[in-house]
Amino acid sequence: MNRKLGIFETAQTISGEYLPFNAVAVLRLAGSPEPELVQRSLLALQDRHPMLKMRIRKYKSRYLFDSEGAPEIRLSVQNRDEEDRWQSACEEELNEKFVIDPGPLFRCRYLYSDRSPGEADIVLTFHHAIIDATSIECLSRELLTLCDSFRVGAPLPNYAPLPLLKPEEDYFPAAFKGFSRKTRIMRFMSKAMGEEMGYRRNMRGKRKPPIHEKARCRILPLQLSPEHTDKLVRQSRRQKVTLNSCLSAAMMVSVVRNLYDNQDLPVRYFIFADLRPYLKPPVEGNNLGSFHAMMRLSIPVSRDQDFWDLARRVNQQVYMASKTGEKFIQPLLSTKMMRMFIRLKNIRMGTTALSYPGVFNIEPVYGETKVRAVHGFVSNFPIGPEFTATARIFDRALWLDCVYLDSDMDRSKARSIADEMLAILQTG
């Protein structure tokens, strides 16, 4: 079973060859299953999902997914010697490259203690070319369901093996294929070149973040209480602004104030879109893979910027970019863009990046196991944005999992940015 990597999958693989580009999910559990049950469940999932069987072979300038010779997933059981051991485990995973050949492109740590068997943490790490936020949600749900079934000896759910799907661009609407695709790309490139010239002109004399290839990812997990989360959701609805735009605006305001001395400047930011519902045909959530888009946009942020004004402008900009098809066009250019940035190594790709897929739809309880918390992080690297985060709503609370580079800032500065983000979101 094999196929050629798609354009966005190739871009993610090139990123991972340069420096680690991993997605890490953490399931914090009470009433945790025995390690052997987790191992059996992982193997069952590997039998079901083709992407968990894959390695990536390089043939000349092409990359191929290939299931031939990829090893079984092995659970790494480690001592949970302290409550926050999962945080250092996450940082280790974010900073450790995958060996794409022979693979596999997925690994799992189980932080478990015989002395305190009630609580444990599952740390799932994926090569980003095989996963998106929907996939992580699906895999988490299936893993916990299997663990419970194995524990009580119940009949296993009908998790039949799934087919290996094509790359996302093969499912793009007809307007983004063939000659029409080329025309749209040329139009987008002409617009992007003009915007790039304006951006560089307006950034003269402003802070130029460093590029240190030995930089390491550090994490900073945050949480907005259920009460403040509910208030923010209600406010965003009144303002007719998505939560995605709210979170992006709060991050930009905080970064400008703390890293750029509250100057007037354009901010280049990344925002992510789930493409599954817009593909032809739509791709269901139980199919693992990378079916999303990374959109790179720029917006002016003024001194003492009003948060809701910026959120509305971000919302409108993202809406227009999506309406004109940039959520399909930018992934088509991702491989060329990534190769260019890695070759030049003289400019950062952006200032901020935020991924907000919405509510994390897993059950809070699986038999004897209760899900205490969920976290998600994505590796950053020295040519990437200065401050990034993934966010989700789980158990009525908003969880914000931030990543920064130790070459950009120390923990105190990162904490200042994070605290200001929370203050903005809590007060509006």
Characterization of the model:
This protein is α+β, with helices and mostly antiparallel strands and 428 residues long. Helices cover 38% and strands 24% of the residues. The protein has a six-stranded mixed β-sheet with strand order 5-6-7-2-13-12, sandwiched between helices. The mean pLDDT is 95.
Oligomer description: single chain
Secondary structure tally, helices: 11
**Sequence of secondary-structure elements:** EHEHEEEHEEHHEHHEEHHHEEEEEH
CATH architecture of the largest domain: 2-Layer Sandwich
Strand order of the largest sheet: 5-6-7-2-13-12
State mean pLDDT (0 to 100 scale): 95
Indicate the low-confidence ranges by residue numbers: none
Shape: globular
In CATH, what is the homologous superfamily of the largest domain? Nonribosomal peptide synthetase, condensation domain
Q: What is the name of the CATH class of the largest domain?
A: Alpha Beta
Rg, nearest Å? 21 Å
Largest sheet, in brief, is: 6 strands, mixed
- How far apart lie the N and C ends? 51 Å
Task: Find the CATH topology of the largest domain.
Answer: Chloramphenicol Acetyltransferase
In terms of DSSP E residues, the strand content is 15-25%
Total number of strands: 15
Summing up helix and strand content along with how strands pair, one would put the structural category as: alpha+beta
Helix content: 25-40%
Number of domains: 2
